[in-house]
């Protein structure tokens, strides 16, 4: 399976690097070869689904990828895939975001600083669905778990890694939202609320940093994508009717490349409805 992006896509971003690209230009980005050369990018939930394909794709475009996830065997598999196509040597960072402490995340910052020396981007992709049930019946322990993995740990990890990101020329932080994060929907409970909180966090970080740093914070909404999570959420749906993670990679690459340095505080739908 190729993780290079199909060059038959027609639209190409022609705007200058400091102008904010349109969302169409981000979705249809045609990454130049090696456009992520020299960058170090951390991907959470890198062992499966969209995160796995994003990690492979970033490596294909020249990045050194730091693979964070909770299942070591899955990270090892992605590590081997990157090595097999000659990508830069990745690093595995096993971490269960549910139980991870702030002290562990600060240690991670120290480790990346010592062993790699730089961090140019984070794709906060790890996520869990939790229950699909009315809030009245939502299990409160499950609620806390979903909020921790999808939101609180995302905040903690961002804060812990900010010193490294601020040292980068143009640090890019990409959060992952969802349609139910932008428009909360009945029965989506903690998942929808956690994603809404993530969108708010991206907005606040943007306001707090845009005049004083080169950092950019944005959210992506992948839209319905063929993964295990989607199959659990919509068990009656034909997975073949959905885009694959590979299909939506142009936007993920664009937001890590220097072509998007003018893009700040956006929520970018990668599969907008017509
Ligand atoms: P997925 O196939 O279920 O993958 C989720 C990833 O997150 C896995 O690698 C998983 O690790 C990791 N993860 C879960 N809990 C974790 C924890 N406690 N600590 C560390 N890692 C953890 O889901 P996906 O569809 O690729 O979703 C990726 C992101 O896109 C999520 O944020 C999701 O909310 C969002 N999204 C997806 C869709 C869609 O249609 N697929 C639509 C909108 C938004 P393990 O494999 O080790 O469990």
Describe the structure.
With 274 residues, the protein is an alpha/beta fold. It contains nine helices and seven strands. The protein has helices at residues 23-27, 49-60, 72-84, 102-115, 140-167, 179-182, 189-209, 228-233, 249-256; strands at 40-44, 64-69, 91-94, 121-124, 172-176, 216-221, 267-269. It has a seven-stranded parallel beta sheet with strand order 3-2-1-4-5-6-7, sandwiched between helices. α2 runs parallel beside α3, α4 (102-115) runs parallel beside α5 and α5 packs parallel to α7. The longest helix has 28 residues, at 140-167. It is globular. The protein starts with 22 loop residues before the first helix and ends in a 5-residue tail after the last strand. The relative contact order is 0.17. Bound molecules: NADP nicotinamide-adenine-dinucleotide phosphate. NADP nicotinamide-adenine-dinucleotide phosphate binds next to α2 and α8.
Q: Can you give keywords for this protein?
A:
binds NADP nicotinamide-adenine-dinucleotide phosphate, alpha/beta, 274 residues, 9 helices, seven-stranded parallel beta sheet, Rossmann fold, 41% helix
What small-molecule ligands were found? NADP nicotinamide-adenine-dinucleotide phosphate
Count of strand segments: 7
Average of pLDDT: 94
Helix content: 40-55%
- Radius of gyration (Å): 17 Å
Number of folding domains?
1
Globally, the shape reads globular
Which sheet architecture does the biggest sheet show?
7 strands, parallel
Question: What's the CATH architecture?
Answer: 3-Layer(aba) Sandwich
CATH topology: Rossmann fold
Cα-to-Cα separation, first versus last residue: 29 Å
């Amino acid at each position: 399976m190729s993780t290079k992006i199909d060059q038959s896509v027609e639209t190409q971003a022609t705007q200058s690097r400091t102008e904010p690209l349109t969302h169409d230009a981000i979705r249809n980005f045609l990454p130049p070869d090696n456009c992520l050369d020299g960058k170090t990018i951390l991907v959470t939930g890198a062992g499966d689904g969209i995160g796995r394909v994003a990690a492979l794709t970033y490596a294909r475009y020249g990045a050194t990828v730091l693979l964070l996830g909770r299942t070591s065997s899955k990270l090892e598999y992605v590590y081997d895939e990157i090595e097999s196509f000659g990508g830069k040597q990745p690093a595995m960072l096993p971490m269960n975001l549910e139980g991870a402490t702030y002290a562990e995340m600060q240690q991670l910052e120290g480790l990346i600083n010592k062993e790699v020396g730089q961090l140019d981007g984070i794709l906060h992709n790890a996520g869990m669905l939790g229950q699909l049930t009315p809030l009245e019946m939502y299990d409160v322990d499950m609620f806390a778990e979903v909020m921790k993995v999808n939101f609180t740990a995302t905040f903690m990890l961002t804060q812990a890694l900010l010193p490294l990101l601020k040292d980068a020329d143009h640090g890019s932080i990409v959060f992952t939202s969802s349609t139910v994060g932008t428009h909360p929907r009945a029965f989506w409970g903690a998942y929808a609320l956690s994603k809404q909180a993530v969108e708010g966090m991206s907005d606040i970080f943007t306001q707090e940093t845009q005049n004083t740093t080169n950092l950019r914070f944005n959210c992506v909404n992948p839209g319905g994508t063929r993964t295990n999570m989607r199959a659990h959420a919509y068990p009656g749906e034909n997975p073949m009717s959905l885009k694959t993670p590979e299909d939506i990679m142009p936007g993920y690459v664009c937001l890590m490349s220097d072509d998007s340095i003018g893009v700040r505080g956006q929520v970018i739908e990668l599969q907008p409805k017509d």
